[in-house]
Amino acid sequence: MSRQQDKTMEKINNVLTIGLKCKKEIDELEGRLQYGDYTTLGAALSCTPDTAKKRFKRGNVDAFKALDRIITNREDLVKDLQNNI
Fold first, then answer.
1. Model pLDDT for residues 4-24, shown as the tens digit of each residue
2. Which of 26, 38, 39, 62 has the most CB atoms lying inside 10 A of its own CB?
3. Tens digits of residue pLDDT in 24-55
4. Could you tell me if 15 and 63 are in contact, meaning their C-beta atoms sit under 8 angstroms apart?
5. Phi-psi region of 22 (alpha: psi -120 to 50; beta: other; left: phi over 0)
6. Which residues are CB-neighbours of 45 under 8 A, at least 6 positions away?
7. Burial class for 39, CB neighbours closer than 10 Å (0-12, 13-18, 19+)
């Protein structure tokens, strides 16, 4: 298999094509991003924040799931702290 075919196969396996999320849900998640989320994602994926951002933008399933969890947990923590202070 050539390198070009490998890249094509890789692109097919992303959050849109496997039906994990639709474009609207991806856009909504991007709208909830805050400063530092890509840094945390990079730490979670053992890569640089720039690499983590590129993986997310390309639809990498692991990056998407991790970023979704990072954002949700951050929002839940903020709500919990606001309610208890």
1. 544 544 555 666 666 556 777
2. 38
3. 788 888 999 999 999 999 999 999 999 999 99
4. no
5. beta
6. 51, 52, 55, 62, 63, 66
7. middle
From the list 29, 28, 17, the residue with the least C-alpha distance to 65 is 29
Residue 43, number of CB atoms within 10 A of its CB: 14
- The amino acid present at 19, given as its one-letter code, is G
> pTM of whole model > 0.85?
no
Long-range contacts, 26-30 (Cβ 8 Å, 24+): 26/59, 26/64, 29/64, 29/67, 29/68, 29/71
Question: Other CB atoms closer than 10 Å to residue 31's CB: what's the count?
Answer: 7
- Spatial CA neighbour of 18 closest among 59, 52, 54: 59
